[in-house]
Amino acid sequence: MNREQAERIELARERLAGADRVIIGGGAGLSAAAGLTYSGERFTQNFADFIRKYGMTDMYSAGFYPFRTQEEKWAYWSRHIVCNRWDPPALPLYRALQAFAAGRDCFVVTTNVDAQFEKAGFAPERVFAVQGDYGKLQCARGCHDALYDDEALVREMAAAQKDCRIPSSLVPKCPVCGGEMEVNIRKDAFFVQDPAWYGAAARCDDFFGRAAKGKTVLLELGVGFNTPTIIRFPFERMAYRCPGVTLIRLNMSEPEGAPENAEKTLSFPEDMAGILPALLA
Ligand SMILES: [Zn+2]
Questions:
Q1: Contact (CB, 8 A) for 71 and 168
Q2: How far is the CA of 140 from the centre of ligand 1 (A)?
Q3: In CATH, what class is 1-36+90-131+188-281?
Q4: Taking all residues of the chain, what is their mean pLDDT, rounded to a whole number?
Q5: CATH 3.30.1600 boundaries in the chain
Q6: Each residue's pLDDT tens digit, 197-223
Q7: Would you tell me how many other CB atoms lie within 10 Å of the CB of residue 175?
Q8: CA atoms within 13 A on the CB side of 52
């Protein structure tokens, strides 16, 4: 570790320790650093048959594959959901975050849909998972706003599939309109925001309002530019407008922020898995 890095870590630690409030912004890079990588061995070992049949290259792009039948779509998605949502335990990086947040005034806003914050023990009323949850299904056309826990169903689909297809009898149907079902993740205009989603959104707004006034740290973890309007831009805006705010950004590929906030930003392009525990300890 060089001197510049040691000083940057020390300053970030001081800001975190002295903060009245901390808002954690969790993006895809956080879950990847925690171990839920979407390419490489986790993909090739779990999806060999799909790679042979469809030429898939990673779980991120596979999520956009235009399957021709519901049997094929749910064969892929059930395994994807079991692999990324239901099988993994709370991962150490998320547990380290929870240990830090316990007893502090913290709120989480995340684009991740793998429920790792919840698994690690964050209070549900302190988490806003903006983009949904792999663990829930919705009507594909959003004809009503109920969500349905999918664990038992996707595990059954994953176990019963053959040649990248599930039995037709397991294809889920909307209990209201009889149409197709979808995973409750935002990918089109039919994404269902249920009352719990709106409740979390309101608590998030409220927390941002209070955090604007005191010594607040915005801890931005692995947030890129896929959906910058959810975490990245609001964090930059808050850092710009509020004198007591420090933005701590951990991002290996896009660490640079708005030049206006350079004085208030501590950026860590280093590997998050090594740096984050050092900041939180
Ligand atoms: Zn419906």
A1: yes
A2: 7
A3: alpha beta
A4: 96
A5: 37-87+134-185
A6: 999 999 999 999 999 999 999 999 999
A7: 12
A8: 7
